[in-house]
């Protein structure tokens, strides 16, 4: 039985041999997604939970609805606390659930005493 080699059409998302599969090298920088949200939990070591709200149009009723997502975020230096508004950036997978890294704290939480 002879094996047939299939030719891959580069227009269907395959990597061309000239690129070598290197996504991080070259002149074009990798664009990572950024989100802004509120820290809801900072009880873990080097990990915070950030809640991000977004407004989308309902596909059937055409009404604007608010949706939320929770992200586990890597906080190496423990800069963020509960209630802070933070900017997070997409990163490589750091654990089973962690794929985001803290970029900056935009606004610290106000403590009403």
Low-confidence stretches: 9-21
At CATH level 2, the architecture of the domain at 31-107 is Beta Barrel
Mean pLDDT: 82
* Widest sheet, order of strands: 1-2-3-5-4
Mind summarizing the main beta sheet? 5 strands, mixed, barrel
Oligomer: single chain
What is the number of helices?
Answer: 0
Overall morphology: globular
CATH class designation of the domain at 31-107: Mainly Beta
Order of helices and strands: EEEEE
How is the CATH topology of the domain at 31-107 named? Answer: OB fold (Dihydrolipoamide Acetyltransferase, E2P)
Kindly, what is the distance between the CA atoms of the first and last residues, rounded to a whole number of angstroms? 80 Å
CATH superfamily of the domain at 31-107: Nucleic acid-binding proteins
Number-wise, the strands total 5
- Percent helix, as a range, is under 10%
Strand content: 35-45%
Rg from Cα: 21 Å
